[in-house]
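Q: Please design a sequence for this.
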């Protein structure tokens, strides 16, 4: 497969569910001609099957296009979460210190990039649990009220981890909210240690379920 009309680099591939042209137009609620105009204007990317010549689209791109039509007067939210590791106080790695450092990095990035931030929402809690994460509850409420246009996080796991992250991203996309991830990898030792702890917990839970 290849990018049609050079709308995508050949090395890049679609990541979501594939939809052929007629289905894409129906999904967006537009005519085939309007769909072509979106592509020509650079608002939508499409692909060509080199075997049968058919054109198809990435459903995630279609969802993002729906989101781009929403009023841009809606909130841009920066969400920061730190895991509640034991407080080491003077070592400067308490959960509140780590949360503030993360917030400073995110705001610094947004300032340098010229991205406005309307609200900063913070949580302390684990990626695999919603317990005590009132900030995430607030985001859900604002999204459902159609008051949010973008959520910015430092790394992919700040909202959730594993399948939970995909579910939340899809939830945001379906409501026209763009999820902007600053750093795609867990570049901090703090985040890698958090992942190890979550994996250890999953192993223990799995052994309990199978009676090992």
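A: Design:
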């Amino acid at each position: 497969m290849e990018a049609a009309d050079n709308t995508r680099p050949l090395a890049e591939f679609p990541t979501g569910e594939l939809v052929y042209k007629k289905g894409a137009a129906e999904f967006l609620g537009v005519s085939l001609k309007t769909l072509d105009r979106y592509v020509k204007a650079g608002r939508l990317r499409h692909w060509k099957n080199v075997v049968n010549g058919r054109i198809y689209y990435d459903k995630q791109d279609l969802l993002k296009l729906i989101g781009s039509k929403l009023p841009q007067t809606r909130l841009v939210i920066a969400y920061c979460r730190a895991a509640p590791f034991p407080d080491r106080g003077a070592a400067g790695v308490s959960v509140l210190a780590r949360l503030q450092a993360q917030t400073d990095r995110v705001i610094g990035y947004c300032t340098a990039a010229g991205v406005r931030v309307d609200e900063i929402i913070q949580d302390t809690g684990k990626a695999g649990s919603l317990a005590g994460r009132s900030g995430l509850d607030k985001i859900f409420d604002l999204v459902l009220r159609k008051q949010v246009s973008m959520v910015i996080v430092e790394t992919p796991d700040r909202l959730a981890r594993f399948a939970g992250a995909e579910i939340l991203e899809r939830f945001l996309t379906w409501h026209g909210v763009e999820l902007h991830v600053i750093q795609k990898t867990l570049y901090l030792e703090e985040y890698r240690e958090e992942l190890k702890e979550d994996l250890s917990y999953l192993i223990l839970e799995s052994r309990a379920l199978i009676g090992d």
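Q: Thanks. Anything notable?
A: The two ends are 46 Å apart (CA to CA). Strands lie at 2-3, 18-20, 47-48, 55-58, 75-82, 119-124, 148-153, 178-181.
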